[in-house]
Amino acid sequence: MSPQTRHLPAATLSASTSPARVRRLADGWWLAVAFRPLFFAAALQAAAAVPLWVWIYTAGVAEVAGLPAMTWHAHEMVFGFLPPIMAGYLLSATPNWSGRLPTAGRPLALLVGLWLAGRLVPLVAPLPLALAADAAFPLAVSALLIREMRLGRSGQSRHGLMLFPVLAVAALAHRLLGDDPAMAATMARTGIAVAALLIAAVGGRLVPSLTRNALAGRGAERVPAPYGRFDIFVLLATSVALPAWVLAPDALFSAALLAAAGLLQLARLLRWRGWLLRRGDILALHAGYAWLVAGLLLAALSALPQSGVPADSALHALTAGAIGSMTLAVMSRLTTTRGPGDHAGQRLCLIALAAVNAGALLRISAPLSAEHYLHLIGSGALLWSFAYLLFALAQTRQFRADRRG
C-alpha cells in the first residue's frame, strides 16, 4: 500500500475505487495534481496585478517592493505569473518522463506557499530577504524538474524541463539588477523568450495533435501533417531569433532573424488548418499560437526605424497576447478535461478566452493611439484580468462538481 493511501479507511479502498479517486481522497482535490492550485494562484494574481499596475502607473508611484515601478510590473507579470503556470503544467506531466507519481499533497502545498511568499515578502522586506523569498519557488521547482529529467526515459520531449531553470536564473538576475533599467529589460526579455520558445515547442506538438483528432473525428479528409523536419527547422530558427531579440532588440540582424522566424511560424500555423475547426477550446490554442506569430513579426518591424511599430506593441503581443492567451487556453483545457464535466465552467472558460484575446488586442493598440492611450490600456487591462478571474471561477465550479460526484 502506498504512503498516500495507508491511512485511508478500508471501506474507501474498495475494488471499485479508481487510483485517481484514491489520490483525490488522500491529498484533497486541490492538491492531488500540481496544475490545480498553481493555475488558480496564477489566475488570481493576473486578475489583481494588472489593474493594480494601471493604478500605480496613473498615480505616478515611483517604486514598489524596492524596484522601480515599471521593473516591478515586468517582474510580477513575467517572473511572478509565468513560473506557477509552467510549473503546474510540467509537474503534472512528470509521470510521462519518470513514471513516478506527480508532486501532490503537502509538498505541493509547500510549493504554493513558497510562490505566495515570493509575491508578498518583497513588498515589506529588505533586498536579501526579498531575494530569498522570490528565489525559493523557481529554485525548488527547478530542482524537482532536474530530478525528473535525470530519471526520465529516452525519447521523451524535455523542452520545458530544460527551459524552466533558465527562467529561474533570469528571475534572480532581474531582482538583483532591477536598479539598472537596461539589464532589467534584458532579463525580462529573457523570461519572455523562454515562454515563447515553450509555446513554440510544446504548442507545436499539442495544437496540431488536438486539431488532427478533432478533424479526424468529423471525417475530414485533410488534417495537419505529423511532426517532422519542417517543425524542427522552424524551432531552430525561432531559437536563434529570440536570443537575438533579447540581446539586441533594435539591431537590423535581429529584425531579419525575427522576420524569418515569424514567417516560418506563420507557415507552420497554416499547415494545421485551424479554419476547419468548430471547437472553441482548440480554436483558442490556434489563436494563442497566432499571437506568437504576430509578436515575432511586430518585433521585427519595431527594430526598423521607419516602420512606425512601437517596441511596446511587439512586447505586449508576446506577453498579453501569446503568453496570456496560450497559457489560458492550455489551462482551460486541462481544467475542463481532467475532472468531472461542468458545462457552466466550460462556458466560463470560453468567455474568458474571448476576453483575454480582446484585452490583448486593446493593449497592443494603445501605443498606436496617443489620444486614447490610457483608455485603451485601462480597457485592455480590465478585459485581460477579467478573463483570468472567470477562469478562477471555473476552477471552483470544477471543485464543486467533483465534490458532488
TrEMBL record:
Coiled-coil ranges from the UniProt annotation: none
Keywords, alphabetical: Membrane, Transmembrane, Transmembrane helix
Q: Which Pfam families match?
A: NnrS
- Which residues are listed as membrane-spanning? 29-54, 74-92, 127-146, 158-177, 183-207, 227-246, 252-270, 282-303, 315-336, 348-366, 372-394
The protein's name: Uncharacterized protein involved in response to NO
Claim: Cell wall biogenesis/degradation is one of the keywords in the record: no
Q: Which InterPro entries match?
A: NnrS
